[in-house]
Prior knowledge:
Strand content: 35-45%
Number of helices: 7
Number of strands: 16
Mean pLDDT: 93
Amino acid sequence: MFFEGSEKKIEITVKPDMPSLRSLGRAFWAQIVASANAEILSSISNSECDAYLLSESSLFVWDDRFLMLTCGTTTLADAVLLFIKHFGSDKVAFASYQRKNEYLSHLQGSSFADDLKRLRAVLPGDAFRVGHLDSHHHYIYTSNTPYQAKQEDTTSELLMYHIQGAAADYLRSDKQTALEIRQLLQLETLFPDFEFDDFLFEPFGYSINGICGSRYMTIHITPQETSSYVSLETNLALTGANQELFARILTILNPGCWDVIGFNSHLTTQDYPEHTCIGSCELQTQQGYDVSFRHYQQLHHETLVPEAM
């Protein structure tokens, strides 16, 4: 059973003369989500953020911005265009759109080039590919709007492929519970004081959102043996007590390779599994985001078995 786990991602910051995006309410965001061929499963809120768990990934809404990730064959560009249709491109202070190359791109309703053409028609911007074309790579679009990011505006992404070992076996089993997955990933320890909202899919697959003030985390697990993919994203600063967060998740899930993408994020490889860095890339946007990309491969990970066709 195949499922395309890799996400498409949009983040839009609106101008100060816009009403609070949180005041738009669940019905409005359900409409936006539905336009991408997904639905809201549940939500949690605090004084600064509303977090919606989706049938395909997540949506986070603050007063002045929103972040939406969708996986599978969703059409996230449609959601972006619907939002802009409601309010106009002149209300957008800054927008970024990310998309990873898919395992089975021919099953997608559009390519990044298709999405980019439609986005640029309403919101001109720059686009780049980071990573080798014949390996894991990502496409990043940023609007050309006159916006300046704060240095503390950080995002860190850990994208893992080909997980293996006891944790992977459990995530593919029929014995799973959401509570035991949270314990397996040590989430209460790694994200203290966060409120969580999670969902265990049938026959397997898992998503969780967490919020603490304006900070968020989200994890999505597609554990299928031949195409496993796990994503972790957070805007926590990965310094001090949080410095080893990625290393601890890598140790638990034991991926064969992984990508790390940081926006104004200074990450360390201390305590990563033994690895080699296959490729790296640095990108500075005109809005003040220092984007870094690293693709790592674990050494001595597995012996492959030929598959009969």
